[in-house]
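Ticket opened by: R.M.
Priority: normal
Category: complex prediction / small molecule

The reporter submitted a protein together with glycine and asked that the result be attached to this ticket for the collaborator who will pick it up next week. Submitted input follows.
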Amino acid sequence: MNILILGSGGREHALAWKVKQSPKCEKLFVGPGNAGTKDLANNVELNVNDFNSIAAFCLQEKIELLIVGPEDPLVNGIKDFFKKDEALKNILLIGPDAKSAQLEGSKDFSKDFMSEFGIPTAAHKSFTNDNVAAGQAFLETLNPPYVLKADGLAAGKGVLILEDLNKAKRELAEMLSGKFGAASSKVVIEEYLDGIEFSVFVLTNGKEYKILPVAKDYKRIGEGDKGLNTGGMGAISPVAFVDEALMKKVEEKVILPTVKGIEKRGMDYTGFVFIGLTKVNNEPYVIEYNVRMGDPETEVVMPRIKSDFVDLLLAAGSNNLNSMDLEIDPRFATTVMTVSKGYPEAYEKGKEITGLDQQMESIVFHAGTKNEGDKIKTNGGRVLAFTSYGPSKEMALLHSYESIQKVNFEGMCYREDIGFDL
Ligand code: AMP
Ligand code: GLY
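Result attached by the on-call engineer:
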């Protein structure tokens, strides 16, 4: 069958790498893709939010499976767009409809969902511009640090964690008067959870589910997990502190009620649920839902799935997921992200990348790269993810760091402590 993956990052390269291994995959397209996806698929110049062009392309190329990488088109209703069109509705689209994508697109929606279905999460209240004073009074009842979250999508910048009560009160007022535009016209204030975070991925159709390998990502730019938040500087799978007993709790207290909730609310959801969790006193709490795979988690999750991934997606689409075996590679997988100097703030693009043709023990997933003539150049903040396997986390990391030494571009930065804190 012909398959289209939407997106252009390391996540999409890793998805393409895995999908391509399926004997069911005939023609594989990635739109818009990057220099890495170009090596194994056909890149198509598509804007992920231009549904008319995507639809026309799907019809032209007889696409039967469409995997939506990022959240934006999902929140903007790509599923709804395909569903209402006779010619498109039989394409299996991996991703929820717009209403269900509010699980990621609105913190208030997701908190309400968690409350309704008894899913453990931080205590919270939501406030709008007409009750700033009530929000400030609520802050006074909490202990520091104070967690303020813009309700809507704010490109990963909408969460503030503040030690000082007065600063928190000021920030609340600023957020409600438009600091993050419409995204912060509503603000969720929640209790601070002092725990260690991990990422759980579930493939579901709202009735059945499969739990994909667990991962941990490293969000901060600096070593020791200090400095600004990024999209993610590296990831590992499996995660030592997420043992079988904890995963059992995650399944019973979080995954089962989440899938039940999706079914009970009649949500149209065939796709991934990415559950950001934190472990507090050996109990799992949900920090957030995302309606897509994580990046760079996908760069370690896909390599650990041994089963045919296209078969799994087709089974999700035809209510056959329970009949499938999900075979997981017992080895450790690690990925280390190289980024442009300055990221996650201003950075330059267009730097030539050298050394990619060298023999190495890693799979190099491209995140922000492009072809220019016969050269490959940087095209984003996150540039290349070096994924490796090993019989231990340490061995896998050694391979990732060895491979990085062979590659270069001006201003290349990376964290040297991915995976070492656990
Ligand atoms: P979110 O966008 O909800 O994932 O929040 C971004 C980051 O803020 C998370 O990955 C956590 O590191 C942190 N965070 C969010 N909510 C809380 C909370 N209630 N307690 C502690 N840290 C949090
Ligand atoms: N790595 C976190 C995310 O994809 O949101």
